[in-house]
Amino acid sequence: MRGELTLSNVSKHFGDAVAVDHFSESFDAGQYICLLGPSGCGKSTTLRMIAGHESVSSGDILLEGKSITKLRPAQRGTAMMFQSYALFPHLNVLDNVAFSLKMKGVDTPTRERRAHELLELVHMDEFASRLPDQLSGGQQQRIALARSLITEPSVLLLDEPLSALDPFLRIRMRAELSRLQRELGITFIHVTHSQDEAMALSDKIVLMNNAVIEQAGTPMDVFNKPNTEFVARFMGGHNVIEADGQAYAVRTDRTRVDKQSNGIKAQVSNIEFLGRTVDVSLDCSGTEVVASMSDEVFYGNTLSEGETVNVHWAPSDLHALASKPHLDATSVGNNV
Fold first, then answer.
1. By CB count within 10 A, which of 1, 65, 214, 232 is most buried?
2. What is the pTM (predicted TM-score) of this model?
3. What is the spatial distance between Cα 102 and Cα 291, in angstroms, rounded to a whole number?
C-alpha cells in the first residue's frame, strides 16, 4: 500500500561508533509515527537514512515493498521537512513552495496552481507574495510543510519540526500537523524528544535509546506498559520500585500518600502546584518517589514539606519491568 514502510536490520556506523543498531520495524500506510528518544539515541540518523540523506551501513529499507536503500533522495517517494525549515530567503512564499516542481521542469502555471492549493491547505495562501523573513516562526513552518508536500510523497519525514516554536504555538501546530496527516492520509514519520508531542500525535511510538529500539507500540501501550526502566523513566509519570525482587513501574497518579494507611515511610521533600494537579516529591530512604494528585485531594490531605507520611499503591497498579530497580517496596503490596 502507498506509504507502507519497512526497515529491516538497518544499522549505521560512523567509524567505530554505532549510531543505529539493527533497527527493524514496519509502519503501516497512513500512520503517524513518532521516533522518540533523548539526544544522540539515533532517531534523526534513522530519519535521514529513510530520506536518503545518510547512507545505510547494513540492512534494507523498503517502501511499498520495494527497496529504496540505494536510491537518491529524489527517487524514493519521500520528502523531508528539516528542523531549520531551510526556506530560500530570496524567494517569496509561492516560489519557495513551487521550487521542487520548477527543478523538475513543470511549467509555471501548473506549479503555481499546485503551490496555491497547498498554501490553502496550510492556511497560508494570503501570504504567497511575502518573503520568509516577513513571516513568524509558525508561518515559516507552514510554508516548509507545504513545500515538502508539493511532490506528493508517499512518506513525509519531519525532523523535530516543532522544537523552535514557543510552547503555545507548539500546541497549535501540533493540532495542525495532526489535521493535515488525517486529511492527506499519507504516512508521517516525526522525530521528537518530547514525550507529550509523541503521545499527542502518534498512532505508533518508537522509543530509542543508545542506538536501539527500547519499545515500539501505541502511545497507550508504551506509557501504561513500559518494557524497561528506561522507558518508564523517559516517558515520565512513573515511579520505579522493587517488590519481591522484581522491578516494577507504578504510575505517579496511582501512587497514594496519606498519614493513616500502612506503607513505606517517606518524608515530603517538595510540592509542585501544576494547575489541575499537584506533584508531591517524597524521600523514601534516599530514593525519590512522586505522587501526583488532584488539587482537591492535595488540599484535603494538607501535606507540607518535611512531614512524614505513608506511601502505598494497589498491587494491580504495579507493572513488571526488565530493568534493575532501586527502591525495595516488598512490604507495600501486603498493606494496600
1. 232
2. 0.88
3. 57
Nearest to 5 by CA among 33, 36, 34, 26: 26
Alpha-helix runs per DSSP H in 258-317: 295-301
SS3 at position 100:
helix
**Same domain assignment for residues 212 and 262:** no
DSSP state of 15: T
Q: What digits encode the pLDDT tens for the residues 158-172? A: 999 888 788 888 888
Distances (CA, A) of 83 to 99, 190, 289: 19, 11, 36
Rg (alpha carbons) of the chain, rounded to whole number: 24
Give, for 257, the enclosing helix (H) or strand (E).
Answer: strand 256-258
What span, in angstroms and rounded, lies between the C-alpha atoms of 264 and 70?
A: 58
Distances (CA, A) of 56 to 6, 153, 273: 14, 21, 47
Residue with cell 515511579: 239
Range of the domain at 274: 239-334
The secondary structure of the chain in percent helix, strand, coil, rounded to multiples of 5, reads 35, 35, 35
**Is residue 234 included in any domain, yes or no?**
no
Where is the domain boundary, 199, 224, 249? 224
CA distances from 231 to 43, 134, 239, 248, 255 (A): 15, 42, 11, 12, 18
CA distance 45 to 47: 5
DSSP H or E run through 253: none
Sign for the pseudo-dihedral over CA of 185, 189, 191, 197? positive
Cα distances from 296 to residues 85, 131, 253, 293, 299, in angstroms, run 44, 51, 14, 8, 5
Determine contact, residues 165/141, Cβ cutoff 8 Å: yes
Q: Over the stretch 321-335, which tens digit does the pLDDT of each residue have?
A: 985 444 555 444 433
